[in-house]
Give the backbone structure.
Amino acid sequence: MAALDASPDRSSEEPAMTAPGILTLLREDAACVFDRDPAARSLVDVLTCYPGFHALVAHRVAHAAWRRGLRWPARFLSYLARAVTNIDIHPGATIGRRFFIDHGAGVVIGETAEVGDDVTLYHGVTLGGTSWTKGKRHPTLKDGVLVGAGAKILGPITVGANARVGANSVVTKSVPEGMTVVGIPGRVVRPEAQRSLSAHGIDLEHHLMPDPVGKAIACLIEHINRIEARLEARTAAEAATLPVAGATASDLRFDGIACRSCGDLCDQDVHGPAPSPRPQA
């Protein structure tokens, strides 16, 4: 019993949520799905086939019980919801209005996490802690934040309003308002002043998230293509001036060290006739 009394109790800080309040929140939660998921066809579809919404229904009730001091029933309801939906939301987590979890598999939200209004999470997101100490140890997401699939936001940090966290990013430092963060570790890549927003300020162009790794690979491919073009031009020029009679462009290779001009063979497969040794001076 002493351990239960030692647990952080926020019931005195805010009044317990009443049933009408829960119903109002759930109506908004269901309605916002249509604004953020083009696959949603009907309200029946949302109510019966969206595990993210099911987990949120359970959390709204469990959180109300948690704030009333009914800790074990709240934890058990959260446990049942996780078993059914594969979404783990601690009943102590504070979640705002019009919250949407798309797909939902593998989402984890810790006890002291705080989520603002109009926040969207994709599957595999973790709002986790970095310490075993009690007190605030999980992140705070301000209004309008979007978190891509597989992202990990760790520690008592703050993600500013309307910021975006790229898929599979690991964020351990606070993110300024309106910024995009990608990578491991997460780093700010550009402000989000010109993105397309829905009626509730939700970004619907998650597929346009900047990808610095992909951009770097594209730059390398472009550089390799330029090098190959230069080598081909040089090969043609060298073949036109080869001193050996009967030599062809296929005798000159730049992917190894074997060619008519050097007179040596490397250990790679060389097409064409074997090069003859260069006459000694």
User: Anything to note?
Assistant: Residues 211-281 form one domain. The mean pLDDT is 76. The chain has two domains: 2-209, 211-281.
